[in-house]
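Posting for a labmate who doesn't have an account.
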Amino acid sequence: MEKPIRIVVGGSGVEKDLMISPGATVAEVTEEAGLRGYQLARKGEKEPLAPETDLFKEAADSETFYASPSKVEVGGGGSASLYHSFDLLKTKAIYLLDRIKRWFQRIRNRSPVFKKKRVVVIRTRIFRQKKEISRAGIKVKVIYKETTSRLVVKGKKPLYWQKSGWLKRGRDYYEGFYKTYFGKWRGSIRENYKGNYSFYISDPPDEVLDGEHGVCFFFLNDTLYFVHFKHEPNDISSGIMAVEKVISNSFKEA
């Protein structure tokens, strides 16, 4: 038995129709719908549904949910040095458990019992939008073409970190650049365990270190700094975008 639902992506005019099966969680639905890093909420409700919520039980037939990016911020939540020490201890404590979970997931993925997907994307619809742009007193109407497409959930579109040129080195290490209009800075990311990452930046600009979020960049050695987040990102792309935003804002405020 399956249940139809609809997801409206805030600010983009995109609607995604899905069929979900019993046991489908919010995290699974957003992942299969290509909305990793997004949260779901009902219209008029401020609090989003928890990622582990059983959406099949929660949703009514053909109910509409609204997707928005998960809140990710740098800094504002205590000492970066203490956070870094705690992060290392937490990583060691959870590492063994995570290895066991990954082993179980490999067995689960190979087993024919678990092969059936619990979320199927039927179609994505982009509605016609009109926007007026004023240039030198002349109004120009820009019309976005209306498209309808069927999605086959086989491959995945490149994520932000991939589009930005970051490369994965080995199993849990990433290298690349935090890129902004004001320049780019070399960075690295360590995946401690699934859904938890440590972000680093080499030789950040003085505008950042002397700015409002300077205390959120903890010096480690040579030119390497650890980045402390107020709300930890649950994916690489969100973390990269948050660091880039802080760098840009620091230059604008300087």
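Reply:
Got it, the structure tokens are right above this. The chain is about 25% helix and 35% strand.
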